[in-house]
Design a protein that fits this description.
Helix content: 25-40%
Radius of gyration: 19 Å
Number of helices: 1
Largest sheet: 2 strands, antiparallel
Distance between the termini: 50 Å
Number of strands: 2
Strand order of the largest sheet: 1-2
Structural class: alpha+beta
Order of helices and strands: EEH
Shape: elongated
């Protein structure tokens, strides 16, 4: 496919499809969408630090 269009690969059949596609054009199976807020793959310490950082930001915004 073209270099200026981002693509993803279907996990089921390996076909390249344009990013944002919800169903593979070749096999017809749904393509899982990545979420930016996923906590998968983070260990307990990383999750704790993310929550702590969010709380500190909240406290800082309320204090101002």
């Amino acid at each position: 496919m073209s270099d200026n269009i981002s693509t993803i690969v279907c996990a089921h059949c390996g076909t390249e499809v344009p990013a944002g596609t919800t169903v593979c054009t070749t096999c017809g199976k749904p393509i899982p969408q990545k979420k930016w807020y996923s906590l998968k793959g983070l260990n307990a310490a990383e999750i704790f630090l993310a929550v702590l950082g969010a709380l500190m930001l909240l406290v800082g915004l309320v204090a101002v």
